[in-house]
Each structure stands twice: as C-alpha cells, then as structure tokens.
Amino acid sequence: MKGWPLRTAVVALALSSALALGQQLPPRPDVWLRFRGSAALLGVADAALARPLKLAWNVDAKDAIASSAAIVDGWVYVASRDGVLHAIDLATGKARWQYSTSSSIEESSPAVREGVVYVGDLDGVVHAVEAVTGKARWTFRTEGEIHSSPNWSGDRLFIGSYDEHLYCLVADTGALVWKYRTGGPVHCAPAIDKDTVYVSGCDANLRAIDLATGRERFALPLGGYTGASAAVAGGEAYVGTFGNEVLGIDLARRAVRWTYATTRTFPFYSSAAVAGDRLVLGGRDKIVHCLARSTGRALWRFPTRARVDSSPLIVGGRVFVGSSDGNLYELDLATGKKVWQFTAGAALTASPAAAGGVLVIGSQDGTLYCFR
Questions:
Q1: How far apart are CA 362 and CA 223, in angstroms?
Q2: What's the whole-model pTM score?
Q3: How far apart, in whole angstroms, are the C-alpha atoms of residue 255 and residue 219?
Q4: Domains of the chain
Q5: pLDDT by residue (tens digit) across 64-119?
Q6: Could you tell me if 101 and 118 are in contact, meaning their C-beta atoms sit under 8 angstroms apart?
Q7: What is the pLDDT of residues 146-176, one digit of tens each?
Q8: Which residues are 153's β-sheet partners?
Q9: Alpha carbon 83 to chain centroid distance?
C-alpha cells in the first residue's frame, strides 16, 4: 500500500512465510501485531521497558475500551465501544485517523498484517482498513456478533462469530475460504500453531481445525464453556473456563493433563500468558494466578480488589495486568510481589500491549494510557 513503510512490509512478509511453514518465531521488540502478541496467543513481549514505567500521555477515545491495542511502526491501533477504530501517534498521542463502523466494537482487538488493520464489530462485520489512510479495504459479514479478535497466518485471516462459526478469509480480499461450525458462539480469539487452528468456545469444547481445509481434527470437552482464548505452546494448550478451572491440555494425546481449581467458585475469563515454566492469568475471584506449566500447581497468587478479566502480559521477568479495581499492576514473575502500580480512572478489562519501549492499555471510561 502506498505510504506503508517498506521495512514493515518486508518483515510482515517474512513473518507470514514462516507461519505458513508452521514455524513459531520469537516476538519482535518493535511491534505488537495482534491480540496476545503472537499467533499462538502467548501474551509475551520482547520490549525493553523502563523501570519504573511513567505515564507518557493519555487520550480520550470517548467510549469504553475493552479491546486491546496493536502497535506498529510508531502507530497505535485500538477500538472503542462506540464502533470507532482509532489510529494514534505513539510518540505524541495525537489522532492520525478514525474509522467508524455502524455498530459497537467490544473485545475484538485489532490485528495488523501487511499494512491492513482487521477488527470485528457487534453487527457481525469484519473490517479491513488501510493502516496509513484509515480507508476501508473490504468488509465481510457474518450472521452474529463478533467479540473474537482476528488472527492470521500467511495470507489467511481467522475470526470467530456468535453465529457459531469460525471463519477463514483471504486476508487481501475478504473472500471466504471456509467456515467451520462449532456447537455455540465463538467468543475467543483463534490460536494458531503450525497447521492447526484452536478455538475454545461456548460449546465447552477445545476444537482443533485444519488450517488449510477447515476440517475438524478433534474436539475435546472442557467441562465448562469459555470466554478465554487458549494459549498454545510446546504441544500443549492452556485455558480457563466458566467451570471455575484452568486446564493444561496435551494436544498430541488429546487429553487434559492437569486441572487447577481454587476453593472459591469463580470463573476464569482472562487468557493466560505463557513464558518458560509458568503461566499467568486473572480470575473473577479478584486474584492473579501463576501456575507451573508442568503440573498446574499454584506458584503464587496476587490479590486485587475486583475481578481480573484483563489478560496478563509478560515482559522478561515482569507481569503487567489490569484489574476492574482500576489499577494496572506490575508484578514480579518469580515471586508475584507487586513492583509498581498505576491507578486509572476506571476499570481495566483490556489487556496491555507493549512494543518499541512503550506499554499501552485502555480503560472502561474510554481513556487510552501510554507508558514509557
């Protein structure tokens, strides 16, 4: 696209090619291209962040932000509940453009691929918008609300809908490649690992779908429906459920390997961040939980004052996570001890994103915060 930096186009092409070949590349420190930062939804950034973080700027998006941001080449892309996709200058916080849908945008978080931004709205429409100009490239209509965040591999875009389907589209044109019917609304973002797409949904199953054909490889009962997205790493998937459990799943054996449950019956809506031997996620019991990947044993718990729907971000040995108590917390990954916190003006249910030396997160009062 005219005006799109050549460096980004070249790197995006390399990423697309690698993913198409089934490779998992490490995160880049200068971009955050999609929800959870990677195709496998690991929630890990390689950004170099200051200690402590300091507020660089904040802007008013006019309506609640539950969507997580994307960061590419000095631009921030984030959606607000009034149906506006915002492009913001990362250095200054000044608006570059706004793209308005005819509906609301809830949790669907922008994904950026080769100069195009993708997002879904509650009218069930997938929007492809030119990243530099804010002009519509194409739209695709599903038959239900879209809360799912788009994900991509090679030249294919994947997104779920409340019409109970997972869609595979041609990223450049929006043409339908295939759609796969589940047994309930698809709220989660699809996770991609090698040649398989994984969705955890309101039908209480983890489903593995062939990326190329849309054919089901297996469906594994989870014991409860999910709002969270599965993180996939090392041949395993990790996801929390509304059955008040977190599951570690062996994908080769197609079996639950371990189950983590607390004594309090509160669901897990937050998606897990996975790094090394640990996974971290929030619970509606107001607690941030850190578990051992091998056993599901609790390593530490950090209490907040309200539910934690925000999905944590791991940066080195640091964990960043928002809470509905209005605070953004930095925790030590090894111990769970609080290192730093920032008090926002409203609940933080969106997930933090980090790249290029900055961290951004939106709040329920419509404020987007940038720290460096």
A1: 32
A2: 0.93
A3: 10
A4: 6-371 (2.130.10.10)
A5: 999 999 999 999 999 999 999 999 999 999 999 999 999 999 999 999 999 999 99
A6: no
A7: 999 999 999 999 999 999 999 999 999 999 9
A8: 156
A9: 18
